[in-house]
Specification:
single chain, 140 residues, mainly alpha
Length: 140
């Protein structure tokens, strides 16, 4: 694979990941200011241009999960953060995260464990070390 192809794959992966985060934020048919600001800050971290970011709200981007498991776990963590950013968790958001975890190839018991224990942490934010520990426990 050429460097150009790899770069294009990475861009498509990042846009796909942001699309899934936007879908989660919009699962209640409303993107609150705090959710939008969180999405924007993630887009900046991922190096997504403002134009590309704006288009994600209008265009369908095919789901393209990260190839590496640790990157999929990081994305799962972003989903949990997105769900909790407005401090209001809806059952549709939880179901969406479950389904996306499966589509990303993450172990369903690990995702369930994270969803279960997040209530034990301030602002329902599972520390990254704990998240990694949970996924290691269920690693094939």
């Amino acid at each position: 694979m050429s460097a150009e192809e790899n770069s294009e794959d990475k861009k498509r992966e990042k846009l796909s990941l942001m699309t899934e985060l936007i879908k989660l934020a919009n699962s209640d048919n409303e993107i609150k200011d705090i959710e939008f600001n969180f999405l924007l800050s993630l887009a900046v971290q991922l190096g997504i241009s403002k134009d590309d970011f704006k288009h994600l709200f209008e265009d369908y981007i095919e789901f393209y999960p990260p190839k590496l498991e640790h990157e999929r776990i990081i994305q799962f963590h972003r989903l949990i953060l997105m769900m909790n950013v407005d401090q209001q968790i809806d059952e549709s958001e939880i179901q969406y995260i479950r389904e996306l975890g499966i589509r990303m190839g993450l172990h369903p018991h690990a995702t369930e464990e994270v969803l279960k224990i997040m209530k034990d942490y301030p602002n329902m934010i599972v520390p990254p070390e704990k998240l990694i520990q949970i996924f290691r426990t269920f690693h094939n």
